[in-house]
From TrEMBL:
Residue ranges the record marks as coiled coil: none
InterPro entries recorded: AAA+_ATPase, FlhF, FlhF__GTPase_dom, P-loop_NTPase, SRP54_GTPase_dom
Compartments it resides in: Cell membrane
Species: [Bacteroides] pectinophilus ATCC 43243
Any one of the GO BP annotations: bacterial-type flagellum organization
Ranges where the SRP54-type proteins GTP-binding domain occurs: 215-412
Biological function: Necessary for flagellar biosynthesis. May be involved in translocation of the flagellum.
MF annotations from Gene Ontology: GTP binding; GTPase activity; signal recognition particle binding
Protein's name according to its UniProt entry: Flagellar biosynthesis protein FlhF
Length: 413
């Protein structure tokens, strides 16, 4: 969403400026008169500031359309008609009284394109309206105007979250929390700031691997093909080459010969030893070989979370390592592809729910632009976020999750 402010001596001129720059589908979010203060009052007139918004893709298509055909001010757009009509009657005082309501309706129409208002926004609005009615008549109108604009802003923010595939349940929860604490008169910027902070709080401080007092076993779990082995190679290269830690590999992925070869290839490039374990019992012996190492990466088979037997084996493997806690620390990383549907992700996390304290890695962010699932799964599991990966290049395409960038992305960049 593009939000811009336009100033002019009158509201009519400010709206025309907005329309000129953003195009006919722009939505007026707020109108306010900026009074000059102090000494400036003597030299400058008051100005009217209009805050207008437009969906980014509409902005781009407007720009493209402008390139290809001359823009006509009355080019058959309903918004153009409504604004022009509004401008014609702006001097009629009775109509001015209706101004905010009609702007509100116009925005509702825009929003209804994307479905009904969010229950949380509707509830917030009803509560605000009820509170306004209790106020003295003189304040009621002002409060109603403020409520209308807060309602519009919240709905725009809610729509953006839904666009980015934040699940409705969590989008409503965030809007609920924000609407409980907003002041009567809030700007789009302060509401965005408030929602941004809530999202950052919900994403939580990300965690990353560190060397401990004991050798650390780092176990990668997750569905087939999400990028577990590739991510292990990225992290192992970093810790071996940049940090000079002693790094070793164990692979329990013996279902596919190619999987063992894949890990062997990475291991030989960075000169790290690899053990292959064919049964759960062999893991203890294998770890014993590496008890002088700092980090021991354990790659598990790309298990289908729907295969109960394979899942049982994975649990046994994890429990066996956890049982060696006198000698080894254990960290588990559940690896998920950001391109997986939310419903499937819930199925997957459900199958790993018995594994305590796993951390989350999201791969393939380069293949999607909707990051909602990162927030959804963080909220659904309560697991801490750790890394995101953005491509096939080893060792480059990985970083500790940047929660601020994710929050910005969820709110439209
Ligand atoms: N686009 C993209 N591809 C990735 C990423 N991580 C891994 N891959 C690719 O996904 C495929 C499966 O990776 P692999 O590590 O074998 O998955 P595993 O079965 O979970 O071990 C390979 O082709 C990887 O190159 C990523 O962040 N982005
Ligand atoms: Mg693998």
């Amino acid at each position: 969403m593009i939000v811009k402010k336009f100033q002019a001596p009158t509201e009519t001129e400010a709206i025309l400026k907005a329309k000129d720059e953003l195009g006919s589908n722009a939505v007026v979010l707020n109108v306010k008169t900026l009074k000059q203060r102090g000494i400036f009052r003597l030299f400058r007139k008051d100005v009217v500031e209009v805050t207008a918004a437009l969906e980014e893709n509409e902005f781009i298509s407007n720009m493209n359309a402008a390139k290809h055909q001359p823009a006509s001010p009355k080019a058959g757009s309903t918004f153009t008609a409504v604004v022009d009509e509004k401008l014609d009657v702006m001097n009629d005082s009775a109509v001015i009284e209706e101004k905010l309501d009609s702007l509100h309706n116009m925005l509702s129409q825009q929003m209804n394109k994307g479905g009904a208002p969010s229950p949380a926004v509707a509830r917030a609005y009803e509560e605000m309206a009820a509170a306004a009615e209790k106020e003295p008549v003189s304040q009621e109108k002002q409060t109603k105007e403020n409520n209308n604009s807060n309602f519009k802003y919240l709905q725009l923010i809610y729509n953006k979250l839904i666009d980015n595939e934040v699940n409705e349940k969590y989008a409503n929860a965030i809007i609920n929390e924000v609407s409980g604490s907003i002041k009567k008169e809030a700007s789009i910027d302060s509401l965005l700031g408030c929602v941004y902070q809530k999202i950052i709080l919900k994403l939580g401080e990300p965690v990353y691997m560190t060397k401990g007092d004991k050798p650390k076993v780092i176990m990668f779990i997750g569905p087939t093909g999400v990028g577990k082995t590739t991510t292990i190679a990225k992290l192992a290269s970093y810790y071996k080459l940049e940090k000079q830690y002693k790094v070793a590999f164990i692979t329990a992925d013996t279902y596919r010969i190619a999987a063992v070869e894949q890990l062997n290839t990475y291991a030989s490039i960075i000169e790290c030893p690899v053990n292959v374990v064919y049964s759960v019992d062999e893991i203890a012996q294998s770890l014993e070989d590496f008890k002088d190492f700092d980090l021991i990466f354990v790659d598990t088979a790309g298990r289908s979370h729907k295969d109960k037997e394979q899942m049982l084996e994975l649990h046994e493997l994890r429990d066996m390592v956890a049982g060696l806690s006198d000698t080894f620390d254990l960290e588990c990383y559940l690896t998920l592809s950001a391109t997986t549907k939310y419903k499937d992700m819930l199925d997957i996390t459900g199958m790993y729910a018995d594994i305590p304290d796993y951390r989350l890695i999201f791969t393939k962010l380069d293949e999607t632009c909707a990051y909602g699932n990162i927030l959804n799964i963080r909220m659904a599991t309560g697991a801490q976020l750790s890394y995101t990966t953005t491509g096939q290049n080893v060792p480059n395409d990985i970083e500790v999750i940047n929660e601020q960038a994710i929050a910005r992305q969820l709110l439209g960049g």
